[in-house]
Structures are given as structure tokens and as C-alpha cells.
Write a structure and sequence with these properties.
heterodimer, A: mainly alpha, globular, B: alpha/beta, Oxidized Rhodanese, domain 1, five-stranded parallel β-sheet, 12% strand
Chain lengths: 395, 317
């Protein structure tokens, strides 16, 4: 039996969701001034599918490595950085052929390296343990029926509000004078790719040696081409970490080429900022933030490009989860809601203060050869490690 | 008299419209056909090595993600200014820049950019000061080009180093606070027309600066004697310039007809360079200066008289 009746209905409904998303993109593109909304939605759809099908959830990946010693999924992050860094180097080579000056490529996520970045990354990591995912993880896991994402995302908004209140103080004391270190300034593009790959290989060797990897890196290739086998491969089975990582890097490259580096927090921070503006809470101006594209919190009442991206992630993830039989409402208790809420606050504060999250700073930053991305990688991992050792994720 | 004016305006319009069809480099030196290029013309001449196209946009990454073929990028806030002295770009740095842009003595330089060509017009003003002879603006700028579904490319052009070298700066295009603006404001120098191109609320002193702008002066209002003609009146809804007849009338209605020297200003001098371009390059009026210090210098200057109809006072609760 290929499909049960329920499976058929679920798949049909998934197809309708995807068609609705594509129709929305089409509708957006036929408006008078479409801007980047349609392409942002398409990028979001691709990312939603990848995150869900490849289970590209930073917390799950870290946790499996730390707790279960299964480091195979960890490779997907490393591959995403590798493929993305090649893509970025290709684009950078044209956007900014000469790296000898002071200038940075436009709108890339290259942030200052400061102690607030370290603290923010640690807080973000602990927030991941407490709430069960990072921000992109929560977005795609809403689509899987992960109800804890709701208090977590409310917490993220609260965290942004707190971060806006602490930002100017931190900025003047530590961030304004902090160095913005971009590897190509010193090593050029070729040297930067080389350094990135050496670092990635070193981490991979460490991860493989430390892990007890029993999970096959890829399942049996298709023996015979049948609808059933294709369905199983594409919709039911988890995509291989290598494929997922490579595709995430490619989507990141296209996002930077066409719109801005991948990042999932701007719509949320914009919402928080607008909320504050309407109630006259907090400072009038957020110092120095105009330097960071993709994470700027502009006051706005409409859905930003980044909002369309988030809608794409949630919608596509829902469609993929439903068709693959992975859609299930998670258990929501008072205790785990509170843990999610507090974790969310840490995620929000951390991502605003670090000027991005695991997608915006970690992925888009390391791919863009920014030291800030690597610092966030290291300390957010450390935060998760501490959180897991303290059993925060079991709350 | 009035009738005669109307008739001559109609003739002027007809002449301009006629010449718009096929603008050429050897048209009269100062008129719309010469100073403003249409997109069709630019598309036809896009590969002409005598035509150098320059984009001056302010949004980061706009040029990199797509620009008009063969367009060279200039960064307004680093390439065209002296960030240490608050001055226009020094001559040495300017010469390095235009050599890289491949500009020769006989080049036709076409500027375009985002935000209604504001910063492109600033570029045109700088290039004129350094003696580049044929500087034009693309009608409607980047927005119209994109709206008309014309092609963009991401390929960055490289040019054989240009031979033009600026040797002096033409100071007659630029107004200075002490020598040009204050004497007019204090009534010592008569007969100079000041044009304030900011919004009516800024001109009347109701607000210190438009919402979202950081550059402030501690006083609101305008320079005594200035006429308020907002920059937006120069252009149509699609960002293209109004006809010569419309522009002539717009300024003549406020007593500005080119018979007297003119000084334009705004908040930081960039939007007023668009009005400078209209008066000096499109209408061909003789003595037009852009005051780049503008309200952020004048409004903050000790001892400079202002006119503030709204009476707002900085710091008053």
C-alpha cells in the first residue's frame, strides 16, 4: 500500500499550502512596486523546506552531538559554511574586487568583535537549551506543531525590548570602539577561503573523532525509480546532512546576491521596536545600528521582506512536515512554557545584542569571512553545552 | 505682455520637446536637451567610449546588485567629500577618481542615482566645479530606469585611465557662508536671490529637521529673504524633470528669472544641488551657487540672523 487515505489527504493539503505560498509570491510580484518581497518569500520557502527536511536545527544538532555523541548532523553546519563561503567569495569578488582598502562589501553581516558579542552568544546558547531551539529553529518547528515555539517567540520579542534598552549603554562602552574584523582585509579572498576550510576541517575531524556515529550518513540510493521510493526519499526520510548543508549554503548565497544575507530576526526586532515606539518606551535612537544591514530594526507597520521570509519558512516547513507525517502538536505544560519564555527572552536579547542569530551572525557571518561569526559560533555552542550539562533542556 | 510671454513659453516648450527627440552632444551648451539625457538616448549610446555613466546611489548594495551597463560607481560620502574638513573632495583625490572612471576631456558624463538623483546631482555639481565640460543627468534616475523595465547588469566595468586632469576649482558655483550668504542675509549685498528648497514646515520653523534625519541645527526657520521652493516641484511624479517652460514659470512666479544671482540651499546641500542643476544647467541661468553648508551650518552659526515665522526655540519645553 503506497498511501493510506489520510496520507493522501495530508499530501494533498501540503500541496495546496505550497501552491498558496507560490501564488502569494506571484501576487506580490505583480504589484506596482514589488521590491524584494516575492524573492524573500521564495527564499523563505526554500529555507523552510531545507530546515524541516534536513532537520537543520542548531540546538538539535548541538544536543545530539553533546548528549548522544552523534556528531553526524553537525557536519551539515560545517558544509553550509563551506558552500556558502565559496558562494560569498564569488559574489564579493565582484562587489568588492579590491580588498586592500578599508571598505566592506555592501550589507554583509560583518560585525564588531566585542565582549558584549561573547556575552550575547553565551546567553543565546543558554536560551537555546531552555527554549528547545534557536530562533530559526522555532520558526520552522512551529510548522511541525511544536507549541513551545509560541511562548519562546513571545519571549524573543520581550528579549528584543530589553536589548533595545541596554543597547546604547553597551554600544558606547564596548561596541563602538570594537574592531570589525574581516579576514579578506588581511588575507584576500583566496586566503580567507583557505583559513575557513582549515578551520572547518579541523572542527570536522574533532567532531568525527569525538562522536560515536552509527547513523548512516546517507540512506540506500534509489534502487528502482518508483513513485513510492521517490516519495520516501524526498518527503519521509531525513535529508542527508551533506546535501542539506550544501543547499543551505547555496540558498544563503542567493539571498545575499538578490536581497540581503540570510537572517531571521529583523521582522521580530522590527515588531518589538514598533511596539516600543508606539508606547514611547526606550531611547529615540539606537546608536550605530545603521551599520548593520539585515538586522536593523526599522519602525514599520507592514510586513518587511524579512517577514515574508519568516512566513515562507513556517509555511513550507508545515507543508513538508504534514506530508512526511511529522506534524504533531507537542505537549505544552506550564513549566515548559515558562522555560521557553525565559529561553526566548535570552534568545531575543542575545540576537539583538550580537546583531543576529545562528542564521544571521553564525551562518551569514562565517560565510562572509567575519570573525564575529566564528566568535558567535564558539560561544553559542558553549552556551548550549553549559545548558545541557545543567539539564536546562529537560525542564 | 502676458500673452507674449505665454506664446514664447509655448515656442520654448515646442523647441525643447522637438530637441528631446534626438538630443546630441553638440546641442546648445545650456538647456534641458543638453543637460538631461533620456533613457532611450542612453541605451543607444551605452557602449560609446565617449559616454561615461556614473551611478551615485546612497542605499548600500544597490549598485552591486545591478546597475546600468558600463556605469562606474561613486560613493557620495567618501569619494565626493573631504570628511575631515567638511569640504568638497580635494583636487588630487578627484583626479585619481576620474582617471579610474576613464574620463577624458571630451567625455560626456551622465550621472544617475537613487532618491530622485539627489546625490547624482551633487556629483554633477562637483564635476562642474572641477571643469568637466559635459555633465548631464539621466531623466528620472535609477527608479524610472527600473520602472521602465530597462536592463541592469552586475558586471563592473574597468576603463583605460582617463586623461582629464582638473587644475583648478570653479568657486563661482559654490556659496560660502562668510563671503556669499551672510552679506545677503544681513542686507549688505542686495539683489541676490536665496532659494530654500526644504519643506514648508522646515522653512517656516515648525520643525527643526524632517523626521528620521540626524543632521540638526539648533535653530529652526530660514535665511532672511529666502524664497521657499521645495525641490519636489522640479520634478514630475515619475521623477523626471518638468519642462523648461514649467520650470521657468515655477521660479519666475517667485521672482527668480535669472537676471539676478541665485544661491540655493537645503539641510546639507545635497537636495539643493538638484535645484542648482535645474537653474544653472537646465534653465541656463548665469550666476547660480549651491550653498553646501546649508541649514546645518547657517542655522548653527553664531551671529547669523534667521527668520523663524513659527518662533520655535531649541530646548524650550
Amino acid at each position: 500500500m503506497l498511501w493510506t487515505k489520510t496520507e493522501k489527504l495530508k499530501t494533498l493539503f501540503s500541496g495546496l499550502v505550497i501552491i498558496a505560498l507560490l501564488a502569494t509570491a506571484y501576487f506580490l510580484s505583480s504589484k506596482e512596486n514589488p521590491g524584494n518581497a516575492p524573492i524573500s518569500l521564495m527564499i523563505g520557502i526554500s529555507l523552510g523546506l531545507l530546515l524541516e527536511r534536513g532537520r537543520f536545527c542548531f540546538f538539535c544538532i548541538y544536543r545530539e552531538g553533546i548528549e548522544d555523541k552523534n556528531t553526524t548532523p553537525f557536519l551539515s553546519i560545517l558544509v553550509a559554511i563551506a558552500s556558502g563561503s565559496i558562494g560569498y567569495a564569488i559574489i564579493f569578488g565582484q562587489f568588492l574586487p579590491d580588498t586592500s582598502g578599508d571598505s566592506l562589501p555592501p550589507a554583509a553581516h560583518i560585525g564588531p568583535v566585542s565582549w558584549p558579542l561573547v556575552v550575547a552568544a553565551l546567553a543565546f546558547g543558554i536560551g537555546m537549551s531552555l527554549s528547545g531551539a534557536c530562533i530559526s529553529g522555532h520558526l520552522y518547528r512551529i510548522g511541525q506543531g511544536y507549541l513551545r515555539a509560541i511562548p519562546a517567540l513571545i519571549g524573543v520579542l520581550v528579549g528584543f525590548v530589553i536589548a533595545f534598552l541596554t543597547w546604547n549603554w553597551l554600544y558606547l562602552r564596548a561596541i563602538a570602539d570594537a574592531p570589525t574584523i574581516w579576514l579578506p582585509h588581511t588575507f584576500g579572498y583566496a586566503g580567507s577561503i583557505l583559513i575557513t576550510f582549515i578551520a572547518l576541517i579541523a572542527i570536522a575531524v574533532f567532531a568525527i573523532k569525538k562522536g560515536k556515529n552509527s547513523e548512516p550518513i546517507r540512506s540506500q540510493p534509489l534502487q528502482v525509480l518508483t513513485f513510492k521510493s521517490i516519495y520516501r526519499k524526498v518527503i519521509s526520510e531525513r535529508w542527508s546532512p551533506i546535501t542539506t548543508g550544501a543547499l543551505v549554503g547555496i540558498v544563503g548565497t542567493f539571498a545575499y546576491l538578490r536581497v540581503e544575507p540570510l537572517g531571521v530576526t529583523r521582522q521580530l526586532s522590527t515588531t518589538a521596536r514598533t511596539f516600543m515606539e508606539e508606547r514611547n518606551i526606550g531611547p529615540d535612537s539606537i546608536l550605530g545600528l545603521d551599520r548593520m544591514a539585515g538586522c536593523i530594526a526599522v519602525v514599520s507597520e507592514t510586513i518587511t521582506n524579512n517577514g515574508w521570509l519568516a512566513i515562507g519558512i513556517i509555511g513550507a516547513s508545515f507543508a513538508a512536515a504534514l506530508a512526511g507525517g511529522r506534524f504533531k502538536f507537542s505537549k505544552l505544560t506550564f513549566k515548559n512554557s515558562i522555560a521557553s519564555l525565559i529561553g526566548g527572552i535570552l534568545l531575543g536579547w542575545g540576537s539583538m545584542t550580537a546583531l543576529g542569530c545562528t542564521i544571521g551572525v553564525l551562518l551569514s557571518g562565517t560565510q562572509a569571512f567575519a570573525l564575529s561569526g566564528w566568535v558567535f559560533f564558539l560561544f553559542s555552542f558553549l552556551g548550549v553545552w553549559l545548558g545541557i550539562k545543567a539539564k536546562l533542556h529537560k525542564i | 505682455m502676458f500673452k507674449a510671454k505665454k506664446v514664447s513659453a509655448a515656442i520654448a516648450t515646442a523647441v525643447v520637446l522637438g530637441s528631446l527627440v534626438s538630443p546630441s552632444a553638440d546641442a546648445a551648451p545650456k538647456n534641458q536637451a543638453r543637460a538631461v539625457v533620456q533613457a532611450d538616448w542612453l541605451e543607444k549610446n551605452i557602449d560609446d567610449p565617449k559616454v561615461r555613466i556614473i551611478e551615485v546611489s546612497t542605499e548600500a548594495g544597490l549598485y552591486e546588485r545591478g546597475h546600468i551597463k558600463n556605469a562606474f560607481k561613486i560613493n557620495w560620502y567618501t569619494d565626493l567629500v573631504d570628511t575631515v574638513k567638511r569640504d568638497i573632495v580635494p583636487i588630487g583625490k578627484f583626479n585619481t577618481l576620474i582617471a579610474k572612471a576613464g574620463i577624458d576631456k571630451d567625455s560626456t558624463v551622465v550621472f544617475y542615482g537613487d532618491k530622485n538623483n539627489w546625490f547624482a546631482a551633487w556629483g554633477a555639481w562637483i564635476f562642474n566645479q572641477y571643469g568637466i565640460e559635459d555633465v548631464r543627468l539621466l531623466d528620472g534616475g535609477r527608479v524610472k530606469w527600473e520602472k521602465d523595465a530597462r536592463a541592469f547588469t552586475t558586471a563592473v566595468p574597468t576603463f583605460k585611465a582617463g586623461a582629464f586632469k582638473a587644475t583648478k576649482v570653479d568657486r563661482s558655483l559654490r556659496a560660502n557662508l562668510t563671503y556669499d550668504v551672510l552679506p545677503v542675509a544681513k542686507g549688505i549685498k542686495k539683489g541676490v536671490k536665496l532659494v530654500d528648497i526644504r519643506s514648508a514646515d522646515e522653512y517656516n520653523g515648525k520643525i527643526f529637521a524632517p523626521a528620521g534625519f540626524q543632521e540638526l541645527a539648533v535653530r529652526a526657520g530660514h535665511i532672511p529673504g529666502a524664497e521657499n521652493i521645495a525641490w519636489g516641484l522640479n520634478v514630475n511624479a515619475d521623477g523626471t524633470f518638468k519642462t523648461v517652460a514649467e520650470l521657468k514659470k515655477l521660479y519666475a512666479d517667485k521672482g527668480i528669472d535669472g537676471t539676478k544671482p541665485i544661491i540655493t540651499y537645503c539641510r546639507i546641500g545635497e537636495r539643493s544641488s538638484l535645484t542648482w542643476f535645474v537653474l544653472s544647467e537646465i534653465l541656463g541661468y548665469g550666476d547660480v551657487k549651491n550653498y553646501d553648508g546649508s541649514w546645518t551650518e547657517y542655522g548653527n552659526s553664531v551671529g547669523a540672523p534667521i527668520n523663524n515665522p513659527a518662533g520655535t526655540i531649541w530646548g524650550a519645553q
